[in-house]
Amino acid sequence: MSVQLSINSEQKSFLEIAREKISYYGEQQTGIAEALALIIGKSADSKSCHKISSLSVREILNLTEVEIVNMGFSKSMAERLFASILFAKKLNGMSLPDDTVIRSPEDAANALMYTKFFEQEVFIVVALDTKNKVIGKSEVFKGSLNASIVHPREVYRFAIQKGAASILVCHNHPSGSPSPSREDIDVSKRLAEVGKYVGIELLDSLIIGDNQFVSLKEKGYL
Length: 222
Fold this sequence. Notes:
This protein is an alpha+beta fold and 222 residues long. It has helices spanning 14-25, 32-40, 46-53, 57-61, 65-70, 75-93, 105-112, 152-161, 182-198, and strands at residues 122-128, 134-142, 166-172, 201-208, 213-215. Helix 9 links the parallel strand 3 and strand 4 (201-208). Helix 1 (14-25) crosses helix 2 and helix 2 crosses helix 3. The longest helix has 19 residues, at 75-93. The chain is elongated. The chain starts with 13 loop residues before the first helix and ends in a 7-residue tail after the last strand.
């Protein structure tokens, strides 16, 4: 018996259309608008859902509750959608869990590629044990990278607290280009020098761009 898809019926609500489309096509062919309809429930409407789905991934991840309300959603629904976005961001933040072994810059970069969606620069420290196994990760700074903001004291305080044998650091470039600036190089070299004194080696400093990255170690800066 063939399955008939009747998503064009005017009698159907957008939620019913979304459910039918997901059931028929599966998750791989389902759009963001239909996924939003399942989160919202009976009050889901095509116009509002498609308004959000028309945004870029970065724009969606950085939506505030107020902005969602201004797009036509009730306050309670905006809270639900904002919570869903926050949940997705938290899951992304867990993409480098403890016990992960870092064998190459690609391993770390792939796990931290979610930072490409951030509108601000975020500086991350990853603590490793003697076998390069992840034992902790922390976003220690936000904002433009410079020597006054990224202070070695905060970076190595986290590393010492975790009992790290070595660390690697990473930050994103919201512009999408991972090309290192003079400041990126200077800050990384400073961290490497301090690491020699405290006995915790800086293995690498990564810069995340739009689906690409640069390893300052591989570039010969460290």
